[in-house]
Design goal:
mainly beta, Rossmann fold, Elongation Factor Tu (Ef-tu), domain 3, 3 domains, seven-stranded mixed β-sheet, six-stranded antiparallel barrel
Length: about 325
């Protein structure tokens, strides 16, 4: 079984393409490094900053983050604020136009203040990302879907990364947050047929029991009974210290839960807790992060803050 790792490359376009070979492309672009027993997937939020959600989705897919700072522009500032709100292990890459001192001032007081920093040296960055591995998470299999498409003679194929346990061909899973049961027809890891795939590996999963047009980003493949789903969500809340909007009860926001991006209404918000209602059910496990974003904010970052979901929730 090979080792795999997914790395979000954010802050500057065109860096990821220098580190890997281009693969799947949508609002995100994936680049791959595959050799020996190593597979690295680099995720670039291609449509950011025009669209905000690709940035959070890229970070949601990632085991590690390369935060590239080519200059201290407004999009870079929003990227920094967003990465700071997550807990993705982050390495900072400084372009030649910025100095370590000025970046240190920007990061002071954030979790990124102590993040390792490197110069933008492509050969050294290749060596660095190829030294990383995804964490091993034991338990039942869990695969968030990030892309899906039909294949003639095969049927529906979902793409994603095994985030927990081991995914095996022919096992039966649930397509969360729907009630649909599916069977894994086959598993591929970077176009190689496999009987199973381990934690951290990127897979293509042919599914029986679902059509391609029933699959969408954010759905999760997992055994029945291992996740919760609902629309009424709440949990401990930490506001983004850079958010300048005025969201309050009744505000129309969006919630990002895993790779699910859904409209949501803010029910209540205190310095310690947020409660919000999504317009359709989302799948989650207690302790998962959920991010609230404000796409109408006139200035400053669009991320409002982070909620750690509690055990409640329901339709």
């Amino acid at each position: 079984m090979s080792s795999g790792v997914t790395v979000a490359v954010v802050g500057a376009p065109d860096v990821a393409k220098e580190l890997g070979k281009k693969g799947t492309s949508s609002d995100l672009t994936l680049f791959n490094v595959v050799h020996d027993d190593l597979a690295v997937t680099l995720v670039e939020p291609t449509q950011f900053p025009e669209k905000f959600s690709p940035l959070l989705v890229a970070l949601g897919m990632a085991d590690r983050c390369l935060l590239v700072i080519p200059e201290l522009s407004r999009p870079v500032a929003e990227t920094i604020a967003t990465v700071d709100t997550t807990d993705v292990p982050t390495t900072i890459v400084l372009g030649p136009a910025v100095g370590d001192g000025e970046v240190a001032k920007v990061l002071k007081g954030s979790r990124l203040e102590s993040a390792p920093r490197h110069a933008l040296d492509l050969p050294k960055l290749r060596d660095l990302v190829e030294s990383w591995k995804a964490p091993e998470v034991a338990g039942t299999p869990l695969v968030p879907i990030d892309h899906a498409f039909p294949v003639k003679g095969v049927g529906a194929v979902a793409l994603g990364v095994v985030r927990r346990g081991t995914l095996k061909a022919h096992e039966k899973l649930r397509l969360y947050p729907t009630a649909k049961s599916v069977e894994v027809r086959s598993v591929q890891v970077h176009d190689i047929d496999r009987k199973e795939a381990g934690c951290g590996e990127r897979v293509g999963v042919a599914l029986k029991g679902a059509e391609a047009d029933e699959l969408e980003r954010g759905q999760v493949l997992a055994p029945d009974g291992t996740l919760r789903e609902g629309t009424a969500l709440s949990g401990a809340f930490v506001k983004c210290r850079y958010y300048r909007g005025d969201a309050g009860p009744g505000a129309a926001l969006h919630a990002v839960v895993g790779l699910q991006v859904v409209p949501a209404e803010l029910d209540a918000w205190t310095p310690a807790e947020a409660r919000f209602t999504t317009d359709r059910p989302v799948a989650y496990a207690p302790g998962d992060p959920a991010y609230l974003i404000d796409l109408s904010v006139p200035s400053g970052p669009r991320i409002v803050g982070r909620t750690t979901l509690g055990p409640g929730g329901g339709s």
